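[step 3/7] fold_predict: job queued, chain A
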Amino acid sequence: MKFPFFASFIVFCLWLTFMLHRQRNKEARVHKSFWDQEAAANRTRRQSLEGLDYIQIPFDALPMEALTEDPAIAECHETLRTLSENPIVNFTGISNTDLKLKYGAPNIDILSRYDQSYTVLVRTLQKMAETLYQKGYVAEACQVLEFSVKTGTDISASYKLLATIYLEMDTPDKISGLLPIVKGLNTSLSGRIAAMLEEFLAKSAG
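[step 4/7] structure written:
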């Protein structure tokens, strides 16, 4: 009775050794591929940045006259004006390696600043929209959030608040319109945000 058990144990050990070896080889290939790509990226010469999708803040289309006496809103306005003085680009989901390969290693610092400005932008828009909504400026909050969505934000709270507003306005069809946008986002959060919007649609149908 002991021999079959011992034989099975040997087979299991051999199988485990094989799987571990295969996993190590796979990790080694991935590791080598990454560093090969990184090396190529670091050799890439500076490229023109003229074709980037620069984001312009449309002050004339935002509710800049609403609730101006509120400190939070005033702070948001100041941040938006400061951001508007420098380039803003959404690089969400794009690695530094890919940026260097496409635009050149010498541009990586400036591209990082463009992306950091974008992060500050969408966070500021979310804060501005939340404050407006909480103070009863629902339509104005909607304007802010719709601009944020156009820039490709992946802040789930922005989509949640916008969907809430659409339900309050009895325009659930606009929630449906958000789904293709969300599914096209270059972010790991895309599926989660889409599922949340579908829950809002289910509520409207029920």
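[step 5/7] annotate
Residues 34 and 97 are 9 Å apart (CA to CA).
The two ends are 63 Å apart (CA to CA).
exit 0
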